[in-house]
Amino acid sequence: MRTQVGIVGSGPAGLMLSHILHRHGIESVILEQRSRDYVLGRIRAGVLEQATVDLLVELGLDSRMKREGLIHTGIELQLDGQRHRIDFDALTGGRAVTVYGQTEITRDMMDARLAQGGQTIYEAEDVSVHGIETSKPSLRFRHNGDSEELQCDFIVGCDGFHGVCRPSFPAGVIQNFERVYPYGWLGILANVAPSSEELVYAYHDRGFALLSMRSTQVSRLYIQVAPDEDLKQWPDDRVWDELSIRLGTPGWTLRDEKSVTPMRSFVAEPMQHGRLFLAGDAAHIVPPTGAKGLNLAASDVKLLSDGLISFYATGNSAVLDGYSRKALERVWRAEHFSWFMTSMLHRTPEGDAFERKLQRSQLAYIFKSRAAAASLAENYVGLPFD
Predict the structure, then answer these.
(1) Which residues have a Cβ under 8 Å from the Cβ of 340 and sit 6 or more positions away?
(2) Which CATH code for domain 5-73+96-177+264-346?
(3) Catalytic annotation, pick one of 12, 19, 72, 222
(4) Is 270 a catalytic residue?
(5) By three-state DSSP, how is residue 135 classified?
(6) Catalytic residue among 100, 183, 201, 203
(7) What is the dihedral of CA 146, 152, 155, 156, to 10 degrees?
(8) 72 annotated active-site
(9) Is the pTM of the predicted complex or chain greater than 0.70?
(10) Is 288 a catalytic residue?
(11) Is there a catalytic annotation at residue 66?
């Protein structure tokens, strides 16, 4: 098999890259370890920055998002039962975020790729990367019991934190930066309309809580727990009581669908070597507090596609060679913002009264200072991709 760009992973990063390349006449083939149904069954957050929304509009992938997405012009921060609104519209000159589930974005892009005749090979097993320091790298894999090889000009790893592409860099090329947080999020779906029109981030002495939503009829709720929390210790009644205490807005009916998400910050740099490039979770992880994961994937593939388009149009690799440097500037900004939101709102197990006073002081400063609120708002709605 032969293509121009071989993409490993059919999540949002890989699919979005394939659509950008298609619009510019560049061929790609996606290899996905899992089945299509498995990929669509992964429940992920879906808070889209303005630039991500603009990119989906540009690609013509916005029709269902326009109908079903929820535009939010602010969030609320809660302290001592009192909520303070961060007004994105006023603080950022009219920018906003859109709540639209990552699963729905993935479905939209899968359907569009199928309609365009794009090739995605699901259940590709034992994928391995070869020849990245040559001009003809390749991907080897097994499919339906047969050994296959996909020859490419370039390979892009969009295969997540546990994928095969990042470990395929030669030893000593990548430096990893990581912080593992001593808490996780217990996520709950509730089949009721959200009790707030906007996301609510709550600081509480018992731990952080977040009120989010999937739609006008489905709430998505999170409470801070230990990263290795046993879900059996959280029956619905206990979850309900804890949400009522931390968020102070009773009235939900919970559906028995819970999961614990450990939290970490992670960056691998550089994000390219030879003819192999990394994008999305394959290169970096952010804690979900800042709502940056999907948006960083979008900015990665936008910057990477600029380089690939330039290369195929001119034969010059200058833009492509600068991909990692440029992408990492935005990655580290998002990492810092995600760390800032996380450390401001969560109780650490060893945290003392001094730490709690600092957190409360930071929240109070944001409530009172337009400059502090504007900085939070600017980072939350997202900086321009370029």
Answers:
(1) 290
(2) 3.50.50.60
(3) 72
(4) no
(5) coil
(6) 201
(7) -90
(8) yes
(9) yes
(10) yes
(11) no
